[in-house]
Amino acid sequence: MSSAFDMLLYGFSLAFQPENLIFALIGSVLGTFVGVLPGLGPVATIAVLLPLTYQAGSPLGSIIMLSAIYYGAMYGGSTTSILMRLPGEAASVITCLDGYEMAKQGRAGPALAIAAIGSFVAGTVAIVGLTFVGPAFANAAVDFGPPEMFSLALLGVVLCASLSGGPPLRGIAMALAGILLGLVGVDLMTGVERLSMGSINLTGGIELVPMLMGLFGLGEVFHNLSKQDGATLLTTKIGKLMPTRRDWRESIPAIGRGSVVGFLIGLLPGGGAILGSLLSYTMEKRVSAHPERFGKGAIAGVAGPESANNAAATSSFVPLLTLGLPGNAVTAVLFAGLLIQNIQPGPMMLVQHADIFWGVIASMYVGNMMLLVLNLPLVGLWVQLLRVPFWLLAPAIVMVSVFGTYSLRNNWFDVGVLLVSGGVGYLFRAAAYEAAPMAMAFILADILDTSLRQALLMSDHSLGIFFTRPRSGVILAIAAVVVVSQLYSYHRRHRRTS
Amino acid sequence: MKSMLGFRLGVAALACAGFLAHGPAGAQDKFPERPITMIVPWGPGGSTDVSGRALAKAAEALLGQPIVVVNKPGASTMIGMGELANAKPDGYTIGTLSSTSYMLKAQGRQLPYDAVEAFSYISYYGDNLIGIAVLADAPWKSLAELIADGKAHPGKIKYGTAGVGSTQHLTTEALMLSSGAKFVHIPQKGSAGSMPALLGKHVDFITEVSVWAPFVAEGKVRLLAVSTPKRTQAYPDVPSLGELGYNSRRSLQAIIGPAGMPEPVRLKLEGAFRKALDNEGFRNAMKTLHMEVIDLAGPDVKKLVQSELQHATELVQRMKAAGN
Amino acid sequence: MRARTAYRSSKLSPWYALAPGRLVAGMFMTLALVFGAASWKLGYWVHGEPGPGLLPLGTSLLLAVCAAFLYGPPREPEEAVVLERLPLVAFALLCAYGLALPWGGMVLPSVIFGVLWMRLLHQRPFLVSLIVSALVTGAGTLMFKVLLKVPMSLWPGMS
Question: What pTM did the predictor assign?
C-alpha cells in the first residue's frame, strides 16, 4: 500500500509540472466542449488529435491531454441531455430521462450542478480505486468470459424494459426492437451480412450516436413544433441554480452507489460507461422511497447514472494500462496514442513506464478538480441557453446535429440515420413511448449475440454453461427476480387503479 | 509548451485552409500542388491507422505537401475501399490496403469494386506479425505438441482469432487442414478481444497479431510459432510456420490509389513512400506494432496481392470441402 | 402521462391522421416480420452450430407477439392523439436538407434549410432568418471544419 502511495506522490510531482498542468487543462476544456457538442464525442476528438501527439513534446503530456479529453467529455455530455434532451454521447442517454424533466420544471440548475458534482466525486472515487485495487481487480475481470457477459447483458435488457414508467409491454417491445436494430451488420462469428437489407452502408451496423441524437434530440424538436409556436423548447422558468438541502439528501447516496457500480462495470472487458449508468439508474429507482417520481424529474436519477458513467470512464483505464486491453472505443484510441509514443500498455507498463502510469493517474485527480472548478460556474451560463427562443434554437439544434453526425466518420449515410431516427423519435414521443429502452437494448444487442454464441461454442451447445458457472448463475438469478418483481408490482398497481 | 501547441493547431488550421483553396488540376510534373488525402478504411487507433499515419507523416516531408489522413471505417473496409476505388485517379486521393480487403473476395463476398483491378499500386510497407500463443502454464511446449493433442482429442482445444475470415483464422484453418488436427474456432471481437479470452482461459490458444507481445515479454504467455516465412528478428527462438513446413497467409500493408493513375504521378508517390520507409519515426512505430518493414515496388505489390488472393481462395474452397 | 393530452385535435386529411400509437405498433410488426424472415433465411442453426439467425429470429417472434397486443384500439385518451402538420412539414424539410447535403456541400443547403425552417415553421422575417441561418452555419463550420479539422466538403463539387 505504502509503495502505491509513494508512487502516487511521485506521479503528483510529474502532474504538477507546469507543462503537464497545461496539457490537463487543455484536455479538460476541449473534452467538455466536445462532450457538449452533439455528435463529435471523445473518440472522434482523440482520433483527430492523435497526429498532434507525434510532436506534442513529452509522451506523458500527450497522454495526459488525451485522457483529460475523455473524462472531460463525460462531464460535458450531460449538459445537452439535461437542457435539450440531446445526448451528446451514448453514456448520457439515461440522463435525458430525469435531467430533461427537471429542466422542464425549471430545475436545470440543480440537475447540471449535481451532474458536475456527482461526476467529480465518482471520478475521484474511481481514481482512488484505480490506485489501490485497480490492478488486482483487472486481473480478476478477465475471468468474466462469454457466459458471464451474456448474463450481464441479459440483465441489462431486462432492466431496460422496466425503465419506462408505462405499461411493461411497451418497454419490452421497445427493448426487443432495439435488439433487432442493434444486430444489423456483418455477423462477427460467420462473416455473413445480417439484416442489412442489401445496403453496403448497413454492413457495419447502424451508427449509434446519430440514432441517439435523432431518437431523443430531433424527436423532441419535432414534438415541440406540435405545440404552440413561439414557446421555448422548455420553460422560461429557470429557478435556483444550486441544489436544495433535499436534493442533496437524495443525491449523496445515489452518487456513492453510482460511483461503486460504475467503477466495477468499467473494469470489465467490453463493459463500458453505458451499462454502468443503466445499472445505476435502475438501482436508484429500486432503493428510492418514491420510485414513481423517476422519469418525472427525480434528482437521484441524474446523480446516480452521471456518477456511474464517470467512474466507469476512469476505471476503464485499469485494463488499458495494466493489461493492455482496451475495453471500449475510447480506450482503443488511447491505446494507439500510447503506441505512437513507443509505450506498450500492458503488464510491463508499471515496470517500464512507471512515470507514465502514475503521472496519468495523478493528473486525473488534478483534471477532475479542474473540471469541477470549470463546470460549476458554467452551470449559470448553460441555463441561459434556455432563454434562447425556440424558433432560433430548433434550427440550430438540427444543423449542429447534422454537422456533428457527419464529423463522426465523414459519412453522409449517418446523416440519413439521424434524420430517420428523428422522425421515428417524434412518433415515439407522440405515442408516449419511452425511447430509452430501445437505445439501451440497441447497445447491448452486440454483447448479447456474440457472447451467447461464443458461450454455446465453448460448452458444445449446452445452455447449462449459463447456470453452472457461478457468477453467470447469480446474475441470471438477479434478472429473474427483476422480471418477477416487475410483473408483480405492475399487476398490483394496475389492480389498485382499476 | 502552450505556445507550441497553439502553433501546431494554427499550422493544422492553415493546412485546412490550403485544402479549401484548391487550384486547378495542375500539370503532372508539378504534382503535388495541394494536400493529398489518404483514406484509411479502418477506425482510428488500429495498426493500419497508426502505421499508415506514421508513414504519411514521413512521406509528406518528401512530397512537400501535407497528407491528410481520413478514417472511413465500416463494413470490413468495404466503405473506405469503395470510396477510394471511385475517387479521381489524380494522385490526390490515395489509401492503405490491408489483407482484409481482398480476403472478403476470397470468401465469396460481393464487393462493389474489383478487389485487385480497381486500384493502382503505389508501394509496400510491411507485414503484420501473426503468432500462435498459449498461456505459459498451458501443457503444450511446442506447436508439435499442440497439434498432436488436437489430433488425439479432436474438438477439445478451442482457439480465438479476430474473427471469421481474418488472416489469423485462415492461417489456423490451413494449419488444421495440413496437419489433421481439429480445433474449435471461437471468434472474438477483433484482435483486442483475443487477449482477454486467452488470459481468462475462455480459449486455449490464440492466433493473433502482436497483442500477445507484452505478455510474452512478461513471461505470462508462450509463443509457439510465428506466421512469417522466416523467423523474425524480434523472436529469434520462435520457429516460423514456414520452416515447420506449414503454409501461412501473409497480412499485407500497402499504399494504393484508384486505378488509372498517371504513371509519372504514381512513380512520384512510389518514390516518396518507399524513401519514407527509412524514416526513424515510422520505423519506431512499426517496431512498437511488431510489424516488419518490407520494401516492394508498386507492380510487385500487385503480383503479391494476386497470388495471396489466389491462395486464400483455394484455401476457402478446401475448407468448404472439408465441411467447415 | 395526463399532461400529454394537450394535443390539439386533427385538421388533417385521413391518410396520415393515424394514431401514432398504432403507427408504432405497425412499425414494430413490420420490423418483426421483415427481420424475422431475414433471420430465418440466415439460419438459426448452421452446420450443427448456433447460426447468425438464432438471436434475431427469437427476438422477432417475441416482438411480433408484443406488436399484436399493442395494435389494439386506444385504451387511454392520450393514445388517441393524431400526428400534426408542423412536425411533418419539418420532417419533410429535414429530409430535403439531408438529400441536398452530399451534392451541395455543407454551406449552401444549411443556410437554405435554416431560412426555410424559420420562414415556414416560425414565420420569422426573411432577413432575420437569413442572418441567423448564416451565423449558425458559420459557427458550425468554424467549430467542426476549422477548430476540430473534420474533413468535410463545404461547397458543391468538392468531395
Answer: 0.78
